[in-house]
Fold this protein.
Amino acid sequence: MSAISGRHTSNKRRFTGPRANDPRVVRTRAAVVDAARTLFLRKGYAGTTMEEIAAAAGLTKRTVYNNYGDKEALFTQIAADVIAYAEEFARGLQEEFTVGISAVNLRAELDDLARRLALGIVRGEVIALRRLLIGEAQEFPALAEEYFDRAPGQVIKALASGFGHLGRVGLLRVTDARRAAAQFAYLVAGEPLDRAMLVGKVPPKEQVIAGAKAGVQTFLVRYGVMRTRRARKSDLQGKDSAFERKVGRSMPRTENQFYELKINTRN
């Protein structure tokens, strides 16, 4: 039984062995995957045949079967490609958050992270796979769950670990690291991702980057330490101004009255 969908998986031969890295084999497999992705999106998984995939790829049906045993193997490969990209991205985050981030470069580092995250999520392969998984969720429930756990789930986990670290060293105000990670991800990529998912068209790169940068700005309003210090300083300055205005209107006659007036004004 298939570990992916719970249905019987064909035992037809898949192309394996040393020639798997042959440039011609790599091109052939990429052409098959691209054709399958396009047809799955257009006609659905059930409505697409291996014959149609072979024709769209410009290959014989035998060649397709030599590389992928059946449609399920193709569908799984499409998901595996995106999962591998997400896992690699998540692994890189673990190192980035613990090396080289300081109060001086925090904003620049978060801007760079947001840019790469948004461009990594809002791209054709990810949009296509997510649309496919939503459309075929009943047919491949386990694959959809696996994708969520190993792709966006791993990225959120890595972000949460990083933001937790930044909170512990005093660079962010974080009490719930996972919530901060989820909010960061949506702020920097949520809107263009939702639009691309529904419309099927990836927004221009410049638009995605601008949205990600604005998302970081909003994120730091909520979680930034420097923002909090500036706000406190502003509050104290405002209270001092109020105190000075009050003193100007009613000057205390003794030292005790002066301190009593200042304490009451600050409270």
Q: What stands out?
A: Confidence is low (pLDDT under 50) at residues 1-18. Residues 228-266 form one domain. The chain has two domains: 18-223, 228-266. The chain is about 75% helix and 0% strand.
